[in-house]
Design brief:
Layout (H helix, E strand, L loop, with lengths): L1 E9 L11 E8 L7 E6 L2 E11 L2 E11 L2 H8 L4 E13 L2 E9 L6 E7 L2 H6 L6 E4 L8 H4 L4 H8 L1
Antiparallel strand pairs: 1-5, 1-8, 1-9, 2-3, 2-6, 3-4, 4-5, 6-7, 7-8
Length: 162
Amino acid sequence: MIEIERTFLLNKFPKEIQTLRKDAIVQGYLSTGKQPLRIRKKGARFEMTKKLSLRQGDESAKEEINIPLTKKEFRMLWKLVVKYLEKTRYYYSLGGGLVAEIDVYRGKLKGLAVVEVEFKSVRQMNVFVPPKWFGRDVTQERWSSNAYLAGMSFKDIKKYIF
């Protein structure tokens, strides 16, 4: 599956944040480098994911390969995790079939909140005008990927935000 998305810092939470559907997410990385192997628990679902860059220097489009895992498989693989992160993801409808996924990080990254939007095409991504409550577009900033953020603290990344 091709994933086309943009990532923004969050300027302000939408007022209805507490009424939105949400998932608790814990994800760990079994390897490091530019295209690490990830396992994730999202709500009651478990999966392994590999993301492959489609164009060098462009983080907005990736090939995403997902493999469902059982809870037992996830627990066994978790023992091999070299770094991880925790977050709560809220789902906010933007209309037109677009959803803002608001990630509020927990644990060592508490204080960080970003919003991601997935698109059906590059054209749709290019014409997207973010709402005012979105902040700076950080899609192409290396530090904003979850693979980079895993194992970091808010103090480690604060210099990239402000």
